[in-house]
């Protein structure tokens, strides 16, 4: 993905061109940080929208190209106290395919060492506190407590002081402010008591509170970082699929080239066990390829000359000679990565509310801490309980749990869907999918194999070989599956297809053309009636064919109906199971087909679909979907062809079958990477589960703060317990989201 590529932003004026700029953001610790980065970006002249994802540490900016550039955006983020760089897919792919990023590894090692240091110095204080609860007499001296707590406060607390300073410098607050204020108050009061009372300061010290808070927050952040890496594993796995080099045959020599030097048309050699570097067509060789990480299909797929292979799939036992058909950003893998990234970096509508809450969260908590301190001091008259209550309020408040509730669930849910071969284009599609209560299916290529077979050709007052030769000639120039059925049927009987003239396709009706000077019509009854032809002689045979669930095609020459063909398109083996799964979820299915009513009804009976609508022309499919929506249904449309694109766009959720056309996939909000109808209920399931996790996370995050803050204000929680609870709240939210990684269709 080009980080500065033209696109259209929803907030832009009509007809305006915008640039979409992706930035990697560093230094964010909670949702308040993400909100501050968004504000800084939106203040840059020319920026239309800016969305920051805390989990991915990514900013997506839409701006007018004339008014801004990436360097100004980076500068704005850095002025706000954070790190920023232009996001590069190429660098990320390289990093995913090879060793981890050096800076990332260094940061992980540093945090681990810091955590070990914090635990080592805090553990004696914690053991002393726990021993006192069970009546053990062992205690450290006040000076000993200070010597253990002070290094933790200075060394471990430095990151929170730094983050708090950056926030306050920009007149805002974040979690660092709360932790820094709370622990400094507890530690500073304890230091003052040691200085004033020396060995008599026992009972007035809160060193264990400040040290345990900092250590537990560090534990929480360490676990949270590991969990977030797990949530983003899907996109890393996809990026790691692309090899960094390819064996290319040029001028009779095979040389290994960097992947970015491979161009369309290059001959690529793939040895057994290697990954295919680009999308390509098989020229020579035969092998079974593992495409599981791309399509979710667990079984190897046989590839032969003339077939297509997808970059990132793993070659089996055969040597393949390929011709590159798509490279770089145009490959299927690159498009998949873009779709997954778009879905993961978007913001759910509920997240907007959370962002508004987070923006005022820290100031409200600080105000509550001040009020608690003042109330205890006025009515209790003692400094220590007032200080304990204020510190507990500061450290138990957790804006992180609120900020992580939605993005972690989205990242985990869309990642699991991608591993199963379900690509969700954006958050809007995911949000609508969980409300779907009606699924509309196109028939051909969706519920059927899309490979119609001509079963029989009956001549009526005509010579059958001549009729077949005429039909094959008219159909020879068409790519329609029905046309191929005629051509293949003729080829099996040794009849070569001649060239016809003036061939015209009639969508939803058939085709016409001139062969040897004679007008030939091939299509349904509507096409014949349009030309004023009498079909009464063919009606009995036509009815018999349609009642058997087959498609009847009429053939006419020179103004007379002279033949009748029976065509069958076998149902996909998984189609009936998919409809049954929808029925179990109480989601009715609707079948739209261009076939005759009786043919469509027969297919519906085989699949268990009650609402079947036949003779629906392509332009009327969208109208049928719109009517269902007007009736109060939330509609998902499933299709695979160009003629399905208007209906896919008209539906609340368009679901394109991956074997279909690019137009259908570009129009749909959800793309199924393999032609398995069972992925339709699976896509609805993963949407429901993701939104369920979002609701669970937000509920517990709000409940945690709603209960914890009053308890702390009333002095019912110690600072150490409050710190532990705050750290665990974020870990629980992320951990709950990570349960989505176990989802399988």
Report the sheet with the most strands, covering strand number, pairing sense and barrel closure: 7 strands, mixed
What's the count of strands?
A: 27
Radius of gyration over alpha carbons?
A: 33 Å
Basic shape: elongated
Query: How helix-rich are the residues, as a percent range?
Result: 40-55%
Strand order within the widest sheet? Answer: 15-27-26-25-16-23-24
Structural class: alpha+beta
- Work out the strand percent: 15-25%
Number of helices: 26
Low-confidence stretches: 1-15, 91-100
Q: Report mean pLDDT, rounded to a whole number.
A: 81
Q: How many domain units? A: 5
| Distance linking N and C termini | 29 Å
For the structure shown, list the relevant keywords:
seven-stranded mixed β-sheet, six-stranded antiparallel β-sheet, Calcium-transporting ATPase, cytoplasmic transduction domain A, disordered N terminus, elongated, alpha+beta, single chain, Alpha-Beta Plaits, 745 residues, 19% strand, 27 strands
């Amino acid at each position: 993905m080009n980080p500065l590529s033209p696109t259209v932003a929803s907030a832009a004026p009509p007809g305006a061109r915008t640039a979409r700029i992706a930035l990697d953001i560093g230094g964010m610790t909670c949702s308040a940080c993400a909100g501050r980065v968004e504000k800084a970006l939106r203040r840059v002249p020319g920026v239309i929208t800016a969305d920051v994802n805390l989990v991915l540490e990514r900013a997506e900016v839409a701006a007018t190209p004339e008014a801004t550039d990436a360097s100004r955006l980076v500068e704005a983020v850095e002025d706000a106290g954070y790190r920023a760089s232009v996001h590069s897919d190429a660098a990320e792919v390289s990093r995913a395919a090879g060793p981890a990023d050096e800076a990332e590894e260094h940061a992980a090692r540093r945090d681990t060492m810091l955590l070990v240091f914090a635990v080592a110095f805090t553990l004696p204080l914690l053991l002393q506190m726990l021993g006192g609860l069970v009546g053990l007499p062992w205690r450290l001296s006040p000076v000993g407590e200070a010597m253990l707590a002070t290094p933790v406060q200075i060394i471990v607390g430095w990151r929170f002081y730094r983050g708090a300073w950056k926030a306050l410098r920009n007149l805002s607050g974040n979690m660092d402010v709360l932790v820094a204020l709370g622990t400094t108050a507890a530690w500073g009061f304890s230091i003052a008591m040691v200085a004033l009372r020396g060995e008599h300061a026992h009972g007035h010290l809160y060193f264990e509170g400040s040290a345990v808070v900092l250590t537990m927050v560090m534990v929480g952040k360490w676990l949270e970082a590991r969990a977030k890496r797990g949530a983003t594993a899907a996109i890393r796995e996809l990026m790691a699929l692309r090899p960094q080099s390819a064996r290319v045959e040029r001028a009779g020599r095979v040389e290994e080239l960097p992947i970015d030097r491979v161009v369309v048309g290059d001959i690529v050699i793939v040895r057994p066990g290697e990954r295919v570097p680009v999308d390509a067509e098989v020229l020579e060789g035969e092998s079974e390829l593992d495409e599981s990480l791309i399509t979710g299909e667990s079984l190897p797929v046989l590839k032969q000359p003339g077939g297509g292979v997808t970059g990132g799939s793993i070659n089996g036992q055969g040597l393949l000679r390929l011709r590159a058909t798509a490279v770089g950003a145009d490959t299927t893998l690159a498009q998949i990565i873009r779709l997954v990234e778009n879905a993961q970096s978007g913001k759910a509508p509920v997240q907007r509310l959370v962002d508004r809450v987070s923006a005022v969260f820290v100031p409200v908590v600080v105000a509550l801490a001040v009020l608690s301190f003042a109330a205890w001091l006025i009515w209790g008259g003692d400094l220590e309980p007032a200080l304990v209550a204020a510190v507990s309020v500061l450290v138990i408040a957790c804006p992180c749990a609120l900020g992580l509730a939605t993005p972690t669930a989205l990242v985990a849910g869309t990642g699991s869907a991608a591993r199963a071969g379900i690509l969700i284009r954006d958050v809007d599609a995911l949000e609508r999918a969980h409300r779907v209560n009606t699924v509309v299916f196109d028939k051909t290529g969706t519920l059927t194999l899309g490979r119609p077979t001509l079963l029989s050709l009956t001549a009526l007052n005509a010579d059958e070989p001549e009729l077949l030769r005429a039909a094959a000639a008219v159909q020879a120039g068409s790519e329609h599956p029905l046309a191929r059925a005629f051509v293949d049927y003729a080829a099996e009987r040794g009849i070569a297809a001649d060239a016809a003239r003036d061939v015209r396709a009639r969508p939803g009706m058939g085709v016409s053309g001139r062969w040897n000077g004679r007008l030939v019509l091939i299509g349904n009854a509507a096409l014949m009636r349009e030309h004023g032809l009498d079909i009464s002689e063919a009606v009995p045979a036509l009815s018999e064919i349609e009642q058997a669930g087959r498609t009847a095609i009429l053939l006419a020459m020179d103004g007379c109906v002279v033949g009748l063909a029976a065509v069958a398109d076998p149902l996909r083996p998984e189609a009936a199971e998919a409809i049954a799964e929808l029925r179990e979820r109480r989601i009715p299915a609707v079948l739209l087909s261009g076939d005759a009513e009786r043919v469509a009804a027969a297919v519906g009976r085989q699949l268990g679909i009650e609402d079947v609508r036949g003779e629906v022309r392509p332009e009327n499919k969208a109208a049928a979907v719109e009517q269902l929506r007007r009736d109060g249904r939330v509609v998902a449309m499933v299709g695979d062809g160009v003629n399905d694109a208007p209906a896919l766009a008209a539906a609340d959720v368009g679901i394109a079958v991956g074997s279909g056309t690019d137009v259908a996939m570009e129009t749909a909000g959800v793309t199924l990477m393999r032609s398995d109808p069972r992925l339709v209920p699976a896509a609805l399931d993963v949407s429901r589960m993701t939104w369920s996790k979002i609701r669970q996370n937000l509920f517990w995050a709000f409940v945690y703060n709603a209960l914890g803050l009053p308890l702390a204000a009333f002095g019912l929680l110690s600072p150490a317990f409050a710190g532990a609870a705050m750290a665990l709240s974020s870990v629980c939210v992320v951990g709950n989201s990570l349960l989505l990684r176990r989802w399988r269709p």
